[in-house]
Amino acid sequence: MPELPEVETVRRSLEPILIGKKITQVEVNLPKLIKIPSGDANAFITTLTGSAFKDIRRRGKYLLFNMDNDWALVIHLRMTGRLLYVEKTAPIAKHTHFIFSLDDGNQLRFHDIRQFGLIYLVPSDQIDLISGLKTMGPEPLGTEFTLDCLKEAIKGKKKKAKVFILDQTCVAGIGNIYADEILFQAGIHPEETIDKLSEEKQNALWQAIKDRLKAGVEHRGSSIKDYVDGFGEAGTFQHQLKVYGKSGQACLNCGKQIEKIKVGGRSTAYCPECQKK
DNA sequence: AGGAGGCCCTGGGTGC
DNA sequence: TGCACCCAGGGCCTCC
Description:
The protein is an alpha+beta fold and 277 residues long. The protein contains 7 helices and 11 strands. 26% of the residues lie in helices and 23% in strands.
């Protein structure tokens, strides 16, 4: 499940090889993934063909490819999306929905088993047309994400802690895996009401958000099931996980059994001893 | 405002 | 072996 560290790893893997490359041909096999212009493969193909990659940015879990014709190709990988840079002779894997042929003879392919991925093509100065980007909260690894910034976002909110950190308008880029890991490190119960946290816990949450995401990036993401970078390489952060996917196992910190509950409709693993309300 | 539920979708796992 | 069912989950939606 690509979250901030996985999306950032994809960005870093693709950036050096895509910048300056021109798209010579676009093949769309599943137009419904194009949200803007809605399902319009022809407009999508016409606009992108002949343009070159200028830069690749990331905002939350979105990848933004700025093209030299002032359009931006924006991609959200959701759960099973992959962006792969391959030779054009490589066999086409099942679930390959988009193929961008490049002027270096290789291809960038978008592959997505569950077809949940989202693709947008917007003028690069109008990325706010994408509602998820328009309302996106602060980048947790950026300088704007200060302790005061987090406290301000928390103020008056009655959401459960896990629901709060998964809310992209509160903090950008956190998904189910890192949410559980962050709350474990901060010693916060996932169902604790967020504005009931003590000063000390708010500080611990702030530190844990930055620390776990940074560690995820350093380990090139977590490859639980589907995630790989732009070259098909797996990450290694899955070996650092303390609670996600560990329900029934002993907590590495206290030995108590990790429990599994549902919070905000998401499966949640936590240690009842280390994460008390 | 928050919470619950549904929807999109495939494949892997389990139970009979 | 086959079939039914459940689960995984990000973002967006509706309804209460």
